[in-house]
Amino acid sequence: MGYYDILRQRATLGGEKLTLLVKPGLVAWGEVEMATGLLAESAAESVEFGGGARVLVLEGGTGALAAWAARRGARVDVCDDSLVAGRLMRAMLDLNGIAGVTVHDAPFPPPGLGGTFDLALLPIPKGRAYTQALLGTAAAALKPGGRLYLAGPNSAGAKAIIQDAAGILGRAATLQTKGRNRVGLAVRLANGAPCPSLEQFYEFEALGLRLFSAPGVFSREALDEGTQRLVETLDGRLCAGRRVLDVGCGSGVIGLYAAKLGAAAVDLVDASWLAVACAARGVDENRLGDTCRAWASDLYSDVPGPAYDLILSNPPFHAGHAVDTDAATELIAGAKSRLTSGGRLRIVANAFLPYDRLLREVFGAARVVAEDARYRVLEGKC
Predict the structure, then answer these.
(1) How far apart are CA 374 and CA 361, in angstroms?
(2) Fewest CB atoms within 10 Å of the CB: 65, 118, 135, 207?
(3) Cis, bond preceding 111 (omega within 30 deg of 0)
(4) What Rg value do the Cα atoms of the chain yield, rounded?
(5) CA-to-CA distance for 270 and 247, rounded, in angstroms?
(6) What's the mean pLDDT in 323-337?
């Protein structure tokens, strides 16, 4: 199965039979199936969906929860930070003939929808700060007395997140635990704050650049050690006058630094809408708009080629809570068709990951540019 191949997967949620669309790089349905099932089961027992109840699904993922709620008669808005999730949800809803669902290309609904929802559903994602932001979203989106159902693995801190929900919404408690998962119910008692938006950032400085990040974006408040190792290998000889692509850009620090070193053009891409917004803010605030552009792409899905002299990346190796190297494998395999003759792919990775073998398969050789006990900077050349 190739990285961009989309498979159909049969699933049953709350008695509803669905055909889901899945692909490598997304959180696997099996990882969230138990928590999603608990959400549907608990919400169905205490909420009347008929009559057009307004439901907000956060962390929409495959779209299964949104489809289930819509089939029960709800008007549904569903959000996800992933470009890929949004595209697959729209296709899945069409495939299953489901109407009454609005898909938002963002992790949070538009601020104008504050205080309009009767119910919110949240499969607890990775990252407590990001989850807390989603709890704030739910508080702002729900009507007074509105309910938030949330569920996730105990190993991912579900108990603590339910406690966080009590502080943010006003009241929360665990409803049940099952299969090492926990489901909770929170009720909005206090007036919520405005919905978090893509314009709310953390700001920090590194490498002489003003950088911006947000909950859910990798290395949120400082330059991470792996990226530091990669940028230490960059200089004007490598970057000056080059066309550069920063894949999985996060805050955009790698690409912005390449522009600072004299790159002629830098494109920054990420599948996360939050990451793209952060990178775009960095472009603007560092006055690099004549050189840099940021947009959403699932690795190379929306990237032309061959157009680049240099591709740079600190690739992810997780999808949700699970280790997943599919994205990094495609990053390496697809690089050659995006590089010009003599172009280079340079990445940083944890030392235990076998990316040198993949580089040799694609480029014929892999050069270790730098290494220490934890990280290696590797390069393949066309």
Answers:
(1) 23
(2) 207
(3) no
(4) 21
(5) 6
(6) 87
Beta strands in the chain (DSSP E): 7-13, 16-22, 54-57, 75-79, 101-104, 117-123, 142-153, 170-178, 181-188, 202-206, 209-213, 243-247, 265-270, 292-296, 308-313, 318-319, 322-323, 339-350, 367-371, 375-381
Total-model pTM: 0.92
- pLDDT of residue 191 exceeding 70, the answer is no
The string of pLDDT tens digits covering residues 198-224 is 557 888 999 999 999 998 897 767 788
Q: Domains of the chain by range and CATH? A: 7-188 (3.40.50.150), 202-381 (3.40.50.150)
Instruction: Please provide the DSSP assignment of 69-123 as one string.
Output: HHHTT-EEEEE-SBHHHHHHHHHHHHHTT--SEEEESSSS--GGGTT-EEEEEEE
Looking at the chain, the whole-number percentage of residues with pLDDT higher than 70 is 95
Rounded to whole angstroms, how far apart are CA atoms 362 and 338?
Answer: 13
Question: What average pLDDT does the structure give for the chain?
Answer: 91
Find out whether 124 and 152 touch, Cβ atoms under 8 Å. Answer: yes
Strand 318-319 versus strand 322-323 pairing type: antiparallel
